Amino acid sequence: MRQFWAHLISPNLAEDPGGAQWLADKSYQHWLTVIALCLLTGTVLTWSLRFCNAHDADSVILSIMAQQKLTLFYWGQNRYMNLLPVVTAWIDDISTNQQVQVWLRASLAAAYPLFVIVLLRPKASLLLCFAAALAALLTIFQFDLIRILWTDGQPYGLSLALMTGAMLLTSRLGGRGIAWPLACVVLGSVLVVLAMLVNASLIIVAAPLFGLLILFAPSIQNVLLLAMSLGGYMVSKKLSNWIGGREYDNIIFDPANLSTAWNRIMAEVDGTALGLLAFLFVGGLIVTQMRHRAARSGGDPVVAPIAVRSIALSVACLIYMMLVPNIEWVILNISHVRYFGLILVLVTCLFAVVIVETLVDGERRIGMALAPPVLLMAALVLFRTSWPIAFPPSDQCSFIATEPGGAAQSSEYYARVALDRDIHLILGDYWKVWPAVFEAIRLSGREDIYGMTLRAEEMRPQILSRLDGNADERLLCTDRDMQVCLQWLTFSLGSGEYHGKPLSEAIEVVEEGTTPAGQYYRIIDLKEGEPMPDAALSEGSGQSR
């Protein structure tokens, strides 16, 4: 047993020669080509007419944050660090800001396969593995899942890119004195801390993944990555506790939660294609192990290194899928598919890379023969997914979900009503308000137009200052039900009173109407009016992340 263990693990704990050699074998031309493909993919998806007019409140609010108030985390919560809004805060035009943020999200998300490739270290061409994995993602995922994981306001692309950067930095630490390894460790630690601040759920994959690799493929790199991940999560948790807010991280184990999650996932992927990839993946691992055993010499491990890493990642993904559907926050959000996006990405890329590695088997001529058709397939899948495209700049892209029947379809109309009547406060439904605020800021170039709905508590000082300086302030409410208008007014002010009077006695409806799309609105004066019953704020309204 001891002899088996000794052969199973890597022979050199001080430095992982496989990682160093793998990185050295990949030419900078391949890396530059992959980076260019990521940027191209981000550009195509950003200005695709299928995606550029599908941005809801969760997406546009990030540009509003960059314009109005930068906070450590996403407004109204103590997680999901506002890193991209900070990066783009210097862009004053909110429309340009939104487009740049979306392009950065999509470009970073296009790099999803790199995490798996760097982890597995296949002998096959970097470019070939990347193209195959990207093609698999865009083929298997349905439109809405691609929108969520590439262009929507999501943390996965950025956090996984940061973790990939840390893995690359720690791939080769020996033979360069002390300064280079120390710099790599420090910079890698910073990247992992940022990754955990952006997406704390990454720890659910990273901890078991690197922990298993320490057991079965020990190296300084894996030890460092586990320590960095745990440290980064602790920093993230400390900052979350410092920000405060209600936590929904209780675990409620119930088989029904797993069933709900499974149904959500299968509604957003091509189950047949994913099942076929899984079958080929298992077959690929078996073939890879048989080849490894046939070519194995005395000092080689019993199990093929790529098989060890593949199994470790598979187990980490399984742990995530068993745990996350039972988290209270996910249950409250009805197991939305975005909470499983990270695992869907990792599993699909894992399957694709192992299949490519099995086909190529280290043979350069086979890789060269496969590369052109695989690259062509990736290009065709990308343009099939994104066509038609409105290359920038184009007025065909509103970067708001303007499709008929959508909550935000009247955003421009609401904005123009507010601007025509010099209204600076828009309240009501979350999905209507933030797109309307975005449009009002875009059309006017002013930043003093505020939303009064879920997540508006971060702007409460500015809202109260606005009301204190304007005794007869008018509000635009996007809801037909006056009780809903009162509900969000109470929520945004943090009180049921206005200048010492109950809100129900301090408002007067001065105008009502409907938009061309048939959506209702009313204009309210904050002054004495007919008494109305108080509205109690109902917990759980609006959107949660």
UniProtKB/TrEMBL annotation:
It comes from Skermanella aerolata. This is Glycosyltransferase RgtA/B/C/D-like domain-containing protein. Keywords: Membrane, Transmembrane, Transmembrane helix. Signal peptide: none annotated. The chain crosses the membrane at residues 28-47, 102-120, 127-150, 156-175, 182-207, 213-236, 273-290, 302-327, 339-360, 366-383. It comes from the Bacteria.
